[in-house]
Design brief:
8 helices, globular, 252 residues
């Protein structure tokens, strides 16, 4: 069986790291991207290699779409040198940051940042990497429970993810001829350093979310990585254009 190669953006920490490790445990090789934390990214690479898989960390700023052509060239070279391949199989668009501000107080700069990272970034990075994705490959876009339920302070972030969910369906339609599936994984609130670590560190927020979740607790990175890896497995080859929410039953 040919080993599959995955690219996970934002793979040096949080959900991206968890997804990269879950993919490695299932026998996939992984290229992760990091924004600034090279040491953390290198640690993830070492951990993946301990599972017997090949791994590589490449720097990428997903808010800077002008850098994507250069990044795609780096990926192409890396695939040739490390894998003797022209293609990779799975793309996980995970990298991102959040903005927490009321609608009335959200600045244009904050809004533009969310557009660049979550909407423009996902759109054009996927476009630039498309020639390198193998026919029969998979794309998973990471969204949020906030596209289903509203939570004050996240309007700018949530609407970008709503755009990503619509893009997912459009891509699934357009890439069907190449047998590439495109799906969304939408995590609920997770204990990570995302958004300044509010869910993890603010006991009041944590307790409130736990009380509103059917399974009675806040999510952990370990709850999400496996969902992403599972969607990319052969068992889920017929799942396409779907939004899979992994929230433990938040606000149902």
């Amino acid at each position: 069986m040919n080993t599959k190669i995955a690219i996970v953006t934002g793979g040096s920490r949080g959900l991206g790291k968890n997804a990269a490790l879950a993919l490695a445990k299932k026998g996939n090789d992984v290229i992760i991207t990091y924004h600034s934390k090279k040491a953390e990214a290198d640690e993830v690479v070492t951990e993946i290699e301990k599972h017997g898989q090949k791994a590589l960390a490449l720097q990428l700023d997903v808010s800077n779409s002008k850098s994507f052509a250069g990044f795609a060239s780096q990926v192409k070279s890396a695939l040739k040198q490390k894998w003797n391949s022209d293609h990779f199989d799975f793309l996980v668009n995970n990298a991102g940051t959040g903005v927490h501000a009321s609608f009335a107080e959200t600045t244009e700069e904050q809004f533009d940042q969310m557009v660049n990272i979550h909407l423009k970034g996902v759109f054009f990075l996927t476009q630039k990497l498309l020639p390198l994705i193998a026919d029969g490959g998979r794309i998973v876009n990471v969204s949020t429970g906030l596209t289903r339920f509203a939570f004050p302070g996240y309007s700018a972030y949530a609407i970008m993810k709503g755009g990503v969910e619509t893009l997912t369906k459009c891509l699934a339609k357009e890439l069907g001829a190449r047998k590439i599936t495109v799906n969304v994984v939408a995590p609920g609130a997770i204990e990570t350093d995302f958004g300044g670590g509010a869910v993890r560190d603010n006991a009041e927020i944590n307790s409130y979310i736990a009380s509103q979740t059917a399974l009675g607790r806040v999510g952990l990175p370990d709850d999400i990585g496996g969902v992403i890896a599972s969607l990319l497995s052969e068992d889920n080859r017929w799942v396409n254009a779907q939004r899979i929410e992994a929230s433990g039953g938040m606000f149902i």
